[in-house]
Amino acid sequence: MSTFAGFARAALAVGAVVAYQLLAHHAVATPGEHGFGLAMALVPPLAIALIAAARSPRRGWLLPLWALVAVALWAARMPLARHFEWGLYIEHVSFNLGMALVFGRTLANARVPLCTQFATMIHGSLTPAAARYTRQITVAWTVFFVAIAAVSTLLFVAAPIVAWATFANYLALPLVGAMFVAEHACRRFALRGEPSARMVDAIRAYRQSSAQGHAGHPHHAGQTVHPCHE
User: Fold this and answer.
1) What backbone torsions phi and psi does residue 220 show, to the nearest 5 degrees?
2) Among residues 12, 122, 124, 221, which one has the fewest Cβ atoms lying within 10 Å of its Cβ?
């Protein structure tokens, strides 16, 4: 894939995420948009599940199961629509807890921290200081995503629903960007004198690793999409 095509694909993905969050916030903030809100809560996970089922070697029973779940949700659409905010909340929290799990599970004994894996993909080998720092950054990203999920839950339970939607749809992703910028600044200070990679180098390393995985090499945790770069 050319660099231009890669950036175009990334721009489309970002545009889709932004559009989704704008529409989800509109559904929550606008009275009477229960049906639209339910669609915003259910269509993305159903679409992801359908794609995963279609690509799975077990598609023979996963696709009928997906159809059965879709029919059940359609039959229950009226009561579900009255509480569609719960679907949006579960979607938001499960994503952030899932990201925390992606980072956190690599911190277990005998495993290589996720950010360490990704830095190794770029540089080939790491100094002890860099290895120690990338482990700390893996911990930081784990805590960050848990904190986002915790704040989301607190707002959903204790604040007006529009306040929760503002945080989930307008603030959560910018906070990821702010965390990324803060990590970049900390790395330049903590690893002064160490080689640093550009963002394009990180993207290229990830693509090469993904291509190797699709060609038949075993996947590892470092091939999960994540914000680490070194």
Assistant:
1) -135, 175
2) 124
Q: Cα 227 vs. chain centroid, distance in angstroms?
A: 9
Phi-psi map region of 149: left, alpha, beta (phi>0 left; psi -120 to 50 alpha): alpha
Distance CA 102, CA 139 (A): 11
- CA dist 207 and 71 (Å) reads 38
pTM of the predicted model, to two decimals? 0.80
List, for residues 65-104, the tens digit of each pLDDT value: 999 999 999 999 999 999 999 999 999 999 999 999 999 9
Q: DSSP of 151-216, one letter per residue?
A: HHHHHHHHS-HHHHHHIIIIIHHHHHHHHHHHHHHHHHHHTTTS----HHHHHHHHHHHHHHHHTT
Report which of 41, 46, 149, 21 is spatially closest to residue 88, judged by C-alpha positions: 41
